[in-house]
Amino acid sequence: MSAQGGSAKATPTRENGQKPETEVLDMIGDETETEQEQQVEEQNETVRIRPSLTSEAPPPAVELPKKKAAAASRLPRKAHLVLRRVEPWSAMKFSFVVSLVCFVVLFVAVAVLYGVLSALGVFESIVQTVNQLTQADGQTTGSFDVSSWFEPVRILGYTALIGAVNVVLITALSTLGAVIYNIAADLVGGVEVTFSEAE
């Protein structure tokens, strides 16, 4: 009985030689505690290894004056280019639009100017002066009627005719000038242009 009692107090083992579950759980708990301690130590080491803020690079605001000084000392860049060809179709479209705008400006300017001069009575005084010079004594009318030349329909009609002729001529001459420039550029080279960077 005493032998059996002594054997009962000894640590129980399983038949296949494995340790009981309580000892296995204690060992797992010890391993997890040691792993946690190692992780804390690694974190502490990483905190110690990290450089301080004073050793880091200075903020970019300190470097800005140097960059501004370097940009101010740098001269503007220049580009030497040669105009080799002018497309006649684009020159014709551009010149047509510009001449059309000039035609509208001319027509409006003449209409406004005619209205101002007519309100001031300039045309009436011109007609009276011409009639006095051309009329003989005792005649009520002169040899020709000057007042018909100052009618608004005639003046604005001539203005529209001149403007239309200008549109056609400017467009044609610009297109012809582009063709002539292309021929001359093929023979002797184009116009050299130097572009400079804005400060």
Low-confidence stretches: 1-16, 45-54
How many helical stretches? Answer: 6
Task: Provide mean pLDDT, rounded.
Answer: 74
Distance between termini?
110 Å
Biggest β-sheet: strands ordered side by side in the sheet = 1-2
Along the chain, the helix and strand elements come as HHHEHHHE
CA gyration radius, whole angstroms: 52 Å
- Annotation, overall tally of beta strands: 2
Structural class: mainly alpha
Q: What proportion of the residues is helical, as a percent range?
A: 55-70%
Please summarize the sheet with the most strands.
2 strands, antiparallel
The shape, in one word, is elongated
Percentage of residues in DSSP E strands: 5-15%
Biased composition (Acidic residues): 28-44
Region (Disordered): 1-63
Keywords: Membrane, Transmembrane, Transmembrane helix
Protein name: DUF3566 domain-containing protein
